[in-house]
Amino acid sequence: MVQTIRLRIEKGFAAYGHFITRRAWIVLVVTLALVGGLGSNIPKIVMDTATDSFLHKTDPALLTYNAFRDQFGRDELVIVAIETDDVFTPVFMDKLKKLHTELKNNTPHLDDITSLVNARNTYGRGEDLIVEDLFEDWPQDQTAFEAKRQRAYSNPLFKNTLLSEDHHITSIIIRTDAYTSAGIKEDALGGFDDADAPTDTPKTKRAFLSDAENSELVLKVEQIAYSYDAPNFKVYVSGSPVVADALKKSMQTNMKRFTLMGLLIIAAVLLLMFRRVSGVVLPLIVVILSVIGTLGMLPLSGRAFTLPMQILPSFLLAVGVGASVHLLAIFFRHVQHGNAKHDSVVYALGHSGLPIVMTSLTTAAGLASFAGAEVAPIADLGVIASLGILLSLLLNLTLLPAALSLLPLKAKSSTRAHKRHDRMDALLRTIADFSTARAWPVIIVSGVLLLISIAGITQLHFSHQPFKWLPMSEPSRLALDLIDERLKGASSLEVIVDTKQVNGLYDPTIMAGLDKLSGVIEALKTDFISVGKTLSLADILKESNRALHANDEAFYSIPDDRDLIAQELFLFENSGSDDMEDFVDSQFQMARFTAKMPWADSVYLQDINDTVTAKFREVLGDDVDITVTGMNALLGRTMQATIYSMGQSYIIAGGVITLMMIAFLGSIRLGLVSMIPNLAPIVITLGIMGWVGVPLDLFTMLIGSIAIGLAVDDTIHFMHNYRRIHHDTGSVNTAVRETLLGAGRAMLVTSIVLSTGFFIYLLSTLQNLINFGWLTGTTIILALLADIFLAPALMKVLDKAHMIPDDKDF
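^ that's the sequence the OP posted. Answer follows.
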């Protein structure tokens, strides 16, 4: 039965070969038109490296965050930190004012800018509440500057926001527009909504600030800020928008570099293997067109080019050439024996068509296992990369054979080539004889390695710190480290308190609770996370209360009278300052509470989110709704999604590929056995990660599902040829030897190309790509070793024990 099906499929591929060779020009025109149509969409590609792009648009955490941005604006800040010996000197402050003004006037997509120049200074004058800039009146002498210094030092809200604790660093905080500049413009009045409008009034949906606009803003800020850099005016620029832009720039640089390097490596390997121009040019055309067509699918499918996508071009180059190598190896060998081109194309497709299709399908299945991932960029990569593999398969089965049938080719005679092949054959013959003659030692050594690796797997840990992907020398990372250390944080956790009633925030109990929570949350500290500063409506209320009581520090507190709270907040609202709209909605129903903290590993953020929620619930009770959001909440959710998606994708990839192997080999037992050489390399690689301390992150989690899809390729070619030869000879030793002599060279070449295609990531500027590259490359090498040592050993032992079916029906 299996033999009948196999023969029918092979005859079908042979018939298909006749069809292709007879209509070669039509095939070329149609395939080139298809790729051209797809490639025409490449200029429409949109890049997106923002933190919120890690989650699907329907993810509850992202929906909550979007609602937060709709109400309170974007929480991601660009921070310009300036280090000096003394902030409050005429020379320094004059330069700071110039920098502040230039940034304010020339930065695109800017919503607000705050520094000591315009920092809020609230005080009372008689019965009036005065809210003005700290430097409303510019000091004319050092004595006046000293007065400003004391005013700033005594303001608790400036500490760790605008001034470091040692007073040697000050900052300019830039808040960007929440929305893209394209489309509907904001209401010119801005600020608060109509006081009579309900809080749930539907808003016109607008797109948030785009990745391109974020880059435009960051570029301008960096250009302006760094132009002021001087020995006693040391400038640092960072914040999540800056880190996202740095990652995007690195992604663009790496992608161009590795695509070019991948092409050069593939060309060199193909030249060494085939010693023909056609053997180099044709596979390169196929893989280049595959990349072009695949990239064109991105805008067609409505997907953006995200961080994980940067591996796509070089990955498709390395994977796509594998099918070409197997087809060309058989084609050129047949031509070398004096057969006509057309007959050689037919023979190559009939002989290798089925395993080529199977290897492409298993690779695509490994990638498609990510399609359901909760991490949006990983899901997008799974869909697009698997489609790219299928497009590469299509071109290998259409464009390549059509081109071969049209090109003028003839047999080559090369004594040097024969000698080179003899040396390779001798090596493969030695490996075949060793693996079958010492089958048990090979299996035992493999088992020991697996046990050691399993012990290493227990040491694995998850991590997600995008800014640490950047090199230590990257200015934005250096700046972020300084801001985190000296200003106690460049990221934030946002808490929304919804009283569920209009003017609910006039309640003294609620406001006192928010004030108490400032101390409670600032006291939170673990080995990995600490809170550097909290800000809320309570701070504004306390400032106003003190000012309206003759600036008496004893009244820097929350009033216990509802009407007094309402009156003081009303006075502040009408003072000319728009600061209140950052912390409360127009109905005084919802309040925003910001906890500023250093960037931390996302694996710990969910715990702090849960702790903060519990603290708020403990202080404010059950009558209010508590929602934790902001960038840190999104990163915490991303880590959760990463862990879940990894487990899900590994199970799906392993299960689907196992079923495909069972179907391909026509035996449940043999299909399961064939997975041992495929899974063993992944287990060993995970063990290596555990022993050397490489974490599982957004990129290293890809290794398992990608590697199993690639590792199974060589297994398919080995098992396909092994069973065919074993059917004819009945000898395991002969079948293994002839299989390696036949398919072994192509297996070796494709593994070299694949592994090198990943090893080139060692030259990346991003640590996550470095780890992904060397680990995936190592896995592919291990998979090759498993296929030429472990797989033959297993066949030998199981054949002796009569535990696998014979091949009489294969």
